[in-house]
Amino acid sequence: MDFLSLVKKSRSFRSFDESKPVSAETLEYLVECARFAPTGVNLQEMKFFLSNTPETNSIIQSTTRWAGKIKDKYTLPPKGHMPTAFIVILVDTTIMPDPDKAKTDVGIAAQTIMLSAASIGLGGCMIGSFDRAVSEKLSLPAHLAPALVIALGTPDEEIILEDKIDIVDYYRDENGVHRVPKRLKEELIVR
Questions:
Q1: What pLDDT, on the 0 to 100 scale, is given for residue 7?
Q2: With 0-12 CB in 10 A as exposed, 13-18 as middle and 19+ as buried, what is 133?
Q3: Is the model's pTM score more than 0.85?
Q4: Which residues neighbour 179 within 8 Å (Cβ) at sequence distance 6 or greater?
Q5: Cβ-contact 84, 21 below 8 angstroms
């Protein structure tokens, strides 16, 4: 698969096949991929909490808020279609005292995880809207500040990318298909 196809395959999935678990080895592989991603001045300030058990997944899921743009009848993820794994990206404040300064590195690591997941048939969703008390609920050390949650699993929904001008709100159509407008390349390039 060429790289552009991989990027298109790496969408924000919000519905998963719960009968297909994600193994601990797979989660470790995704972190191994992120480990080699660049970080500012090579600080490597991130740590990763891995979850693939129903109990821990439920704790993390309870702290998340999904698909803020969708205001209709669709509850995401739908009951019975929860992610089967999570990675919580944490910033080690003993290395980077201000976690906000790690946002770029967190984004690079998250995108690396998402692309790696897509390359092995998994899908995910980066979730920035979550309760930071997830650390306490997971009994994590105080110096590890949660920066981003990534939900993972085998996607069981269809996502269609649409070329649009000046429309960026994603939505579910009348058949429940998730549609994601993307600005045209010509609109993005400044000449």
A1: 96
A2: exposed
A3: yes
A4: 159, 160, 162, 170, 171, 172, 173
A5: yes
